[in-house]
Amino acid sequence: xxxxFDTPRRLxxxxxxxxxxxxxxGLVPVVVQDAYTHVVLMxxxxxxxxxxxxLEKGKVTFFSRSKNRLWTKGEESGNFLNLKELLIDCDNDTxxxxxxxxxxxxxxGADTCFNESNAQRTGFIDYLRAVIAARKGTNPEESYxxxxxxxxxxxxxxxxxxxAVELVxxxxxxxxxxxxxxxxxxxxxxxxxxxxxxxxxEEIIGELESRHRK
Length: 214
Description:
Helices cover 40% and strands 17% of the residues. A hairpin with a 5-residue loop joins strand 1 (28-34) and strand 2. The protein is of the alpha+beta class. The model is unreliable at 1-5 (pLDDT under 50). It has two domains: 4-101, Phosphoribosyl-AMP cyclohydrolase (Ubiquitin-like (UB roll), Roll), CATH 3.10.20.810; 122-213, MazG-like (Helix Hairpins), CATH 1.10.287. It has helices at 48-57, 122-135, 144-151, 153-171, 176-196, 201-213, and strands at 28-34, 40-46, 61-64, 69-72, 81-88, 95-101.
């Protein structure tokens, strides 16, 4: 059973009044995190208008203290931070912006303003692989993935084949959403197959790299 501590404190246009702007003279600090890799990208500040515009436009927008105006990250460089969600902390005075960066975040050209590398999109895949591995040996009545492992390698391989065929079928049509859904299904079952075969994804990547070098 989920408790109140399991529920993310998401900000929407309907609950912005909970943000405490008084501590920072009308501003709150905003930590920006890659929604997929979970790497911290930068720190900025928002006023109430910046929060509203960020939610409305879907691009992370700050209040620039040096420019004394609203500033959308990427408005000059094109390296926007496309918003996925906003969360407010337990004291209602700090915001976490989960975003998808389009290009480097820092003005220096670095991935982050802390000069850290941000391996795009691999973070969630690593998380998903860990979840899949953890399902091995668990109750198959409570987990679809665990049920696949119990049924054995032949069933897992069969599912990969079925999903591949469904993806090919969708590729011939023009429904982007259905194609993306089938692609996600295929990728998931492919990761399950790798785990069933006890072959790490890194080994597959290494094979691709070796072919590229030839």
